[in-house]
């Protein structure tokens, strides 16, 4: 019988949107875990195009303050904005935030070096980024740390770049708030297997 230990672990990785700051791990332990998860994630041609900023304390709070301020002009309805602000405050209540980036100079270098595959490197970078995000998210879940993957980019790109001195060429792709699990996720629904998979064995 095949070992499903990893599948069981993946089932622990859920979008936890109600998080807190009550973790028993220190910032250095968590940062080391995140760094290792990203380093061991695969990328096309091993180009290691994923970048990350790991933010704690006021720096983490700043991400969600920036997002709240930026969305004021995008969500003019007061009631809708109040709901949006409450959602952002739930992320802000966590222990930290990971900002995931793609390093565009790496992609440009690959396109030049491997011209035959030039049209694919942007897509492959997204695949590598997704692998890194899943690796980090699952590693956090293994340690009973809740997280979710948010996408307020590109709305907040300029403000984030200014606030955190983001290197030139790093393009923001997602924001992952994490912290203690204050409310578990609801049961996950799955589409029918017949509409998702096709098995051919001949």
TrEMBL record:
Domain of life: Bacteria
Any one GO biological process: cellular response to oxidative stress
Residue ranges occupied by any Nitroreductase domain in the UniProt entry: 11-179
Record-linked SUPFAM superfamilies: FMN-dependent nitroreductase-like (SSF55469)
Entry's Gene Ontology cellular component terms: cytoplasm
GO MF entries: oxidoreductase activity
Cell compartment(s), UniProt: Cytoplasm
CDD domains per record: Frm2-like
Keywords attached to this entry: Cytoplasm, Oxidoreductase
Protein name: Nitroreductase family protein
Organism: Oenococcus sicerae
């Amino acid at each position: 019988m095949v070992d499903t230990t990893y599948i069981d672990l993946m089932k622990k990785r859920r979008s936890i949107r109600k998080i807190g700051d009550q973790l028993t791990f220190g910032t250095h332990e968590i940062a080391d875990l995140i760094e290792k998860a990203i380093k061991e994630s695969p990328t096309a041609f091993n180009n290691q195009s994923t970048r990350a900023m790991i933010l704690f304390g006021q720096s983490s709070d700043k991400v969600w303050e920036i997002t709240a301020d930026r969305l004021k002009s995008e969500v003019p309805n007061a009631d809708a904005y109040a709901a949006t602000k409450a959602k952002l405050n739930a992320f802000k209540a966590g222990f930290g935030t990971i900002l995931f980036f793609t390093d565009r100079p790496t992609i440009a270098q690959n396109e030049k070096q491997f011209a035959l595959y030039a049209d694919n490197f942007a897509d492959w970078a997204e695949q590598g980024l997704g692998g890194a995000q899943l690796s980090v998210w699952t590693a956090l879940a293994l340690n009973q740390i809740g997280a979710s993957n948010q996408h307020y980019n590109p709305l907040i790109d300029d403000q984030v770049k200014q606030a955190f001195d983001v290197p030139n060429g790093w393009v923001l792709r997602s924001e992952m708030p994490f912290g203690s699990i204050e409310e578990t996720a609801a049961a996950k629904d799955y589409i029918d297997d017949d509409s998702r998979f096709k098995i051919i064995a001949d």
